Amino acid sequence: APGAPGVAAARLLRHAALAALQLPTGAPGPDQFVYTESEGANRVESQLWMSADGASKGLSRSPNGKTSVVPRCTIAQAEAKGCYPSAGFFPDMPTSAAVLLAYLNKLQITNTQNRPADSPGWVANDIGKGIFYLMGMTYLLPAQRAALYELMAQTPGFTVVHGVRDAIGRTGVGVEWKFEGGKGAVILNPKTYAYLGVRTWPVPGFHGPGAHAYDGDALIKIAIVNKAGELP
Q1: What DSSP designation does 53 have?
Q2: Which of the 8 DSSP states describes residue 14?
Q3: Nearest-CA neighbor of 6 among 136, 140, 127, 156?
Q4: 117: CB partners within 8 A, 6+ apart
């Protein structure tokens, strides 16, 4: 598309926001759980059950089959005590991009207010990471999803990259950002704008612990269930 790279990203993200508003509505009850299933490039699945309101312990099942407990932390506790919210659903998340970032900062999902002055790309990197956390692990209302896309559209530093493959080989369009020599991308379906997954590329030449040929996850399924460990 003509114009600066950020213009193309904003145009794509606003199309994604419009598509999100057409999704069916519905929400988990406070006593239910949000189930997400993802895959890495090794084709091994990870499963996560998040208490919808964060008041109950969740469950995580890693690729090696081990399970671990997700500790309780409701949204109110996150605001008062500073714990990281373990809720699978944020019913009060703003649907206006103008106030959404302040809400995400308050819950520590993003941390843009503490950005160093000498770190270009900090805000885009921080928002990008917050977006793929929310889209990959929580249940979003259509208007909330649209607001997240609009927040990205209003933030400098995002570009469009076509032909990006997610961890299981699905080809999508990437909304990419760069930070301190590395980069990341939220990957969307090029026709429906559905979230496919995330990919990150570390700083070139990095071969230490955590270095992988493909670093990222593909979202396979998200659903509402009645208890931790239950499959949809």
Answers
A1: S
A2: H
A3: 156
A4: none
Q: How far apart are CA 137 and CA 134, in angstroms?
A: 5
User: Mind listing the pLDDT tens digit of every residue in the chain (232 residues)?
Assistant: 444 558 999 999 999 999 999 999 999 999 999 999 999 877 778 999 999 999 999 999 987 778 999 999 999 999 888 899 999 999 999 999 999 999 999 999 999 988 776 777 899 999 999 999 999 999 999 999 999 999 999 999 999 999 999 999 999 999 999 988 888 999 999 999 999 999 988 776 666 655 566 688 999 999 999 999 999 9
The DSSP call for residue 112 is G
Count of Cβ atoms closer than 10 Å to residue 103 Cβ = 16
d(CA 201, CA 184): 6
pTM value is 0.91
Rounded Cα gap, residues 13 and 150, in angstroms: 7
By residue count, the chain amounts to 232
CA dist., res. 189 & res. 185, Å (int): 13
One-character DSSP codes across 193-224: --EEEEEEE--TT--STT--SSEEEEEEEEEE
Give me the residue label for tokens 């969307």. Answer: 188
Tokens of 217: 């996850």
How far does CA 100 lie from the centroid of its chain? Answer: 14
